[in-house]
Structures are given as C-alpha cells and as structure tokens.
From TrEMBL:
GO cellular component: a single term: membrane
Source organism: Vanilla planifolia (Vanilla)
A single GO BP: carbohydrate metabolic process
Protein name per the record: Beta-hexosaminidase
List of catalytic residues: 320
Example of a GO MF term: beta-N-acetylhexosaminidase activity
Length: 526
C-alpha cells in the first residue's frame, strides 16, 4: 500500500460525485486543512459502538474532558443518520486509542494543541491512534476524525475511506478568536453554547465576549450589584453562575473566554445603576474621569471577573473615546485644569490607570488600537493591541515590541455583510511583517460578530460560513493555504454543508454574508 503524500492545494480539492440521490464527497474534505496529511485507498467500517482506549496515557481524565469529548464526537458523527447496519467481519474499526502526555488539563493562552492521528488500513482489533501533548490536542484530533466519517446508505453504517491516514497537525497561531457582543442584543445561553459548539468544529480557540457596552449592562457584578440595572430587561441578564457555565462549557471544548469591558468610552449603561459615573445626565459618556469612584467600580468588576474568567488576558477596550463631555461638564473641566491635563491627557490617564488595575488582578491587557495610535509608547509592555480600524497597524505594533491581534474591519468584521468569504480567507495577519521575532508578536486574529443587527434569530448564519474561512487562515500552515480562494471553494462549500448537517444554520457560501439560498439545488451549489 503506497501512501499518496498530499502536497500543495491543487490535490486538496476533490470534486463531489453524485451517486443515486446522495452526494458522496470523497477524498480530502477536511476543514481547516491539517499541517500534514497522507492517505491510502482502503475502506474501514464502524457501527454504533466505537470504543475509547486510554490505558497508556499519563492523563487520568478526572474531569472527564476526554470522555465527554469522545461521546460528543460520536454524537456529532451519528447525528445525521440512524445507524442500524452490521459491520462486516473484516475491515472493522473498533475504536480510538488515545495517548496524552501531559497530566493536567489547564487551558489558557499557549496551551499545546498539537496532535497526531493515525488510522490503520485494517487488521484484527483495529484501533485508530491519537497522540497529543494535552487533552485539548486530542479534542482537535476527534474533530478531524469526525470529518473523515462517511455514512453508507446501503449498509447503514459509517465508513472511513482512503485509509490508512496519517495526520500530523497543530495551529499556526495560538490566538484564533471570534467576538460576540451581548450588549447591543442579549444572547441567551443556549445560543452562546451553540456558537461555542460550532467554533470547536473549526478549531477556533478564543470566544471574545464583548459583554457590556453603552446600550446594556447584562452581567451580574457582586462588587457593584446595581450595574446590571443597565440591562435591557429583567430577563436579559447573566448571573455569575451563568457566566461560569459559559466558561466551563467552552473550556471542555478547548475554548478560552476573553471577557471585555470597554472603557472609558463605551460605558453609558454603567450609569443606570450608578448615575455618578456619568459626567452629566445629558452627557453620559465617557465614564467620569474625575471621580475615584469610576476606578473603584472598575476594580470591583475586575475582581469579580477574576473569579469567573481564568484566561490570561482581559480586554479593556479603549476605542472611540469622545472626550467632549469631559471638557463641557464644569466639574470635570475644573478637575482637568487642576490636574494640568487636557482631554487627550485624561484619556491616556484613564486607560493607563485601568491597565494598572487589571495588572494588579494578574491579568495581561488587550486594548483596541486607538490606545496604541494615540499613546502607544506609554502603554504597559504587557499590552496586546487589538487592530480593527485598518491596515498597516499590526506592522507598527510589532515593530514597537508590543503584541498584536488582527481584526481589520474591512476583511474580518462579520457584521459587514459585504465582506466576502474570499476576503475572510485571504486576510493574512503577517502581511508586510517579515522578521521572525516580529512575526511571533502577532498572536493571531479574530473575526468580530458585532451585535447591532444580530440576535438569537440570525447570529449563526451571520457568523458561518465566513468565520470558517478565517479559521483556516489562522490554523493551517502558510504553505497549505490557497493563494487563490477559488482553490478551496469546493472544500469550504462541503464544510458549510457539514455544518448544516450538524444543525448549524450556516448561510450559503456564495454571495453576501447571511444570504438566503439563491436557487433550488444541492447544498454544495448555494
Ligand atoms: C508520561 O510522561 C513522561 C514525562 O513527560 C513521558 O516521558 C512519558 O513518555 C509519558 N508516558 C506516557 C505513556 O504518555
Ligand atoms: C462627541 O460627543 C458630543 C457630546 O455628546 C456630541 O455632540 C458629538 O457629536 C460627538 N462627536 C462625535 C465625533 O461623535
Ligand atoms: C495636550 O497636552 C499635551 C501635553 O500634556 C500635549 O502634548 C498635547 O498636544 C495636548 N493635546 C491637545 C489636543 O491640545
Ligand atoms: C502592505 O504594504 C503594501 C505596500 O506598502 C500596502 O499597500 C498594504 O496595504 C500593506 N498591507 C497591510 C496589511 O498593511
């Protein structure tokens, strides 16, 4: 049996073949493309009862992350069809043998996500073999395995074609994010969980939760219990336990949760609970820089967050600060004069003090790019700058020695419905950054699902499939990425259909974001 080594993109696109009524797509239909893949031409079979074997692992799975991940994988594979056939005596796959080297299951920035997946061609007592440093690498291997499983409509069992498989894989960037915004529209827990589920299908690993903004303050903060008076309604709120549930749900799927409070600009809603945070009732933003109370509240929120959000970073916003209310409100303008500050000094002062508070809670800080553009040299060296406005920013950030996350709005804002999947795919975080030591400072990227026009009714189809295009850009090595998006259109269309089969409302691929299916035809041609 000779393996066909896959190289380059050309071989990666394998056209669908119509057989009877079913569209069987054979060959390499993995998304995102693994770092290294080779495969053969034999077929293996399995039915309902795949086994998980772990006896050679150091990892003891006390928390059940591996076992849960395995049974979720079985559910996901078998969710699309009823399996009621019998497995032939030869060529049966009995299960997956997983070996994990690391003892602990701590998840944070930089956790090892690499894995190896070997599927033999046949033999008695055949098990696929997975090797990973951490349980989170093994979860990625399960996802890859699930994408290789194909239902056979004649035998009504599952098959794996093109065995033996040898996949050696790991992410290109350690930070692969998706932003959700629960201030512009409240997102119920089951919807956030569905988004997390679908993130794991594309190997994204950071849910950036933009919890609070000027429109509403939906989360409970025990230190300042009136803040969530800024929620839209009684029921549109998250308790501390709800937030913990989100973090835990994400963690066991290998996804970190990055919490954001956006100060001092996007904070009107804070004042419904504590009106003294407003410069004036008719001029409610930014937070009143002259009041110690503003910083006490921030400190309280971050101490509450520290008990919930264990990710190494917290996001402090800092974008779009309009200081007019500071200069036009008499008590603040008096305070500015006394402190020999103009409005832009006060903006700097606020952001730097907020950073110090976050650092005192043992968080490293992410700020939107305006902070860097206005006073980059004054920021804590532990700052990560989150690009959004335009191009060329990451280049300047890493040249200054700070770290960067890329989300340029022209390509990676999901609320821009005219941003195409091709643009999502082709947006390269390291463009114009050539020095290896500067490339390392680009932690990765994030696609942003701002909430002005999405709620529970349309968030999934606005996120998917475009976010998946960016997920491959962030996961796969540069040599495996297409130089022309047409080269991956068939494979991405296949993945979009897979999302639909798994119950994710991913919109048609072709056309604008959140499109409706343009004509009656196969899923693959929408
Ligand atoms: C257990 O961990 C040690 C130390 O990392 C490693 O050398 C060994 O190979 C591991 N054993 C297994 C079975 O994973
Ligand atoms: C800044 O805020 C003031 C006061 O709320 C408002 O009148 C002005 O239009 C704002 N400027 C911009 C550029 O949004
Ligand atoms: C504010 O004051 C600083 C010096 O403290 C000065 O560098 C800056 O140009 C001033 N900005 C404006 C908008 O006047
Ligand atoms: C890279 O540099 C070129 C030439 O200066 C410029 O046109 C382009 O916008 C830059 N790309 C980014 C992402 O900054």
């Amino acid at each position: 049996m000779s393996l066909r080594e896959m190289s380059g993109i050309g071989a990666a696109v394998v056209a669908g073949v119509l057989v009877g009524f079913s569209l069987i797509v054979d060959g390499l239909n993995l998304w995102p493309m693994p770092a290294s893949v080779s495969y053969g031409s034999r077929t293996l079979y399995f039915s309902k009862d795949l086994q998980l074997r772990t006896e050679e692992s150091n990892y003891s799975d006390v928390s059940g992350i591996l076992k849960d991940g395995f049974s979720r994988m079985i559910d996901v594979i078998q969710t699309t069809h009823v399996v009621d056939g019998n497995v032939p005596s030869s060529g049966a796959l009995h299960g997956l043998h997983v070996r994990i080297f690391s003892l602990d299951d701590e998840l944070n920035f930089g956790t090892d996500e690499t894995y190896k997946l070997f599927i033999p061609e046949s033999g008695d007592d055949t098990y696929a073999y997975i090797e990973a440093q951490t349980v989170y690498g093994a979860l990625h291997a399960f996802e890859t395995f699930s994408q290789l499983c194909i239902f056979n409509f004649d035998t009504r069992i599952y098959e794996i074609h093109s065995a033996p498989w040898k996949i050696v894989d790991g992410p290109r960037f350690p930070y692969r994010g998706l932003l959700i915004d629960t201030s512009r529209h409240f997102l119920p827990l089951p919807i956030i969980k569905k988004v997390i589920d679908s993130m794991s299908f594309t190997k994204l690993n950071v849910l950036h939760w933009h919890i609070v903004d000027r429109e509403s303050f939906p989360i409970q903060t025990p230190s300042y219990p009136n803040l969530w008076k800024g929620a839209y309604s009684y029921s549109e709120r998250y308790t501390v336990d709800d937030a913990q549930e989100i973090v835990q749900y994400a963690k066991i799927r290998g996804i970190n949760v990055l919490a954001e409070i956006d100060v001092p600009g996007h904070a009107h809603s804070w004042g419904f609970g504590y009106p003294s945070l407003w410069p004036a009732v008719d001029c409610p933003e930014p937070l009143d820089v002259s009041k110690e109370f503003a910083f006490q509240v921030l400190d309280g929120i971050l101490s509450d967050f520290k008990k919930i959000f264990k990710f190494k970073f917290v996001h402090l916003g800092g974008d779009e600060v309009n200081t007019t209310c500071w200069t036009t409100t008499p008590h603040i303008s008096k305070w500015l004069k006394e402190h020999h500050m103009n409005a832009s000094d006060a903006y700097t002062y606020f952001v730097l003090r907020a950073q110090k508070i976050a650092l005192s809670h043992d968080y490293e800080v992410i700020n939107w790019e305006e902070t860097f553009n206005n006073f980059g040299e004054k920021l804590s060296r532990k700052t990560v700058i989150h690009n959004w406005l335009g191009r060329g920013v990451a280049e300047k950030v890493v040249a200054s020695g700070l770290r960067c996350i890329v989300s340029n709005q022209d390509k990676w804002y999901l609320d821009h419905l005219d941003a195409t999947w091709e643009g999502f795919y082709m947006n390269e975080p390291l463009e114009n950054i050539t020095k290896p030591e500067q490339q390392k400072l680009v932690l990765g990227g994030e696609v942003c699902m701002w909430g002005e026009t999405v709620d529970a009714s349309d968030i999934e189809q606005t996120i998917w499939p475009r976010a998946a295009a960016a997920a491959e850009r962030l996961w796969s090595p540069i040599g495996k990425l297409a130089t022309n998006p047409n080269q991956v259109a068939t494979r991405l269309a296949h993945f979009r259909c897979l999302l639909n089969q798994r119950g994710v409302a991913a919109a048609p691929l072709f056309g604008l974001g959140r499109a409706i299916p343009p004509h009656q035809d196969s899923c693959m041609r929408q």
